[in-house]
Amino acid sequence: MTTKRIVLTLAVAASMLPAFASAANVYVRPGATGANNGSDWANAYTALPSTLVRGNVYYIAAGSYAGRTFSTAASGTTPVTIKKATVADHGTSTGWSDAYGTGQASFTGGISFTTPYWVFDG
């Protein structure tokens, strides 16, 4: 009986790994000039990508962003997190400048949500 419990526990834990493994930090900064792939501050997206991934944290630098409707389909209760980068909390330091974290980030034209489970932090 104990062996069955261990196997069951391991199976449940293993089934949860893909959800955690896919979560990533993504970086967004108006005026970024790198590869525009969001992998770090040097290669930040210049705007939030059109498709957002649940479980990811999107760090946004100070600056102005276009208004948008957030509509990424729900996946259980997994949120998409949009987080204002700060000097103290900005994910990777690759390509980081403290200037990205000291000003405001704003969305011109407003924002709206058509799906649940969004976290705006900052």
Automatic annotation (TrEMBL):
Task: Indicate the secretion signal residues.
Answer: 1-23
User: Where does the source fall among the domains of life?
Assistant: Bacteria
Which keywords does this chain's UniProt record carry? Signal
The name on file for this protein is DUF1565 domain-containing protein
Phylogenetic lineage? Bacteria, Pseudomonadati, Pseudomonadota, Betaproteobacteria, Burkholderiales
